[in-house]
Design a protein that fits this description.
This protein is mainly alpha-helical.
Length: 131
């Protein structure tokens, strides 16, 4: 039986996770995909949740990526309701846009955003704040 992984606090996870790098490598290399959808998605969800972003806002952006592409969303003046959250997300999406040339990479980015939205929702449900 494999050993139980050590737990980390949200702060430790965020400090140890470079979401932009995980997007860069996770979108282009299969070997990094698990890390992108694991620690990368969790760190992104924790970060955006702390900035007050609602899951539906991130899910909407996933749909917008599917419709208009990652670069389109990255260049939106305010993709999320707050300026601070928009700037954080915009940095991640600009990184993704640099490598999202193929439609399957665009779809993978949208699926990652959906995962982040689900994780934000799960965090809120665990706290009992159903928004």
């Amino acid at each position: 039986m494999p050993p139980t992984p050590t737990t980390r606090t949200d702060d430790e996870l965020i400090a140890a996770t470079d979401v932009g790098s995980l997007l860069l490598y996770g979108l282009t290399r299969d070997a990094f995909r698990t890390a992108l959808f694991g620690d990368g998605a969790v760190a992104a969800a924790v970060t955006l949740d702390r900035l007050g972003v609602l899951p539906r806002s991130v899910a909407f952006l996933a749909d917008t990526v599917r419709a208009g592409g990652v670069r389109y969303v990255a260049e939106l003046p305010e993709p999320l309701p707050s300026a601070e959250a928009s700037e954080v997300l915009r940095g991640w999406l600009r990184t993704a846009a640099d490598v999202a040339a193929a439609p399957d990479t665009e779809d993978l980015t949208a699926r990652w955003l959906d995962t982040v939205a689900e994780l934000i929702g799960a965090r809120r449900d665990a706290r009992g704040s159903h928004q």
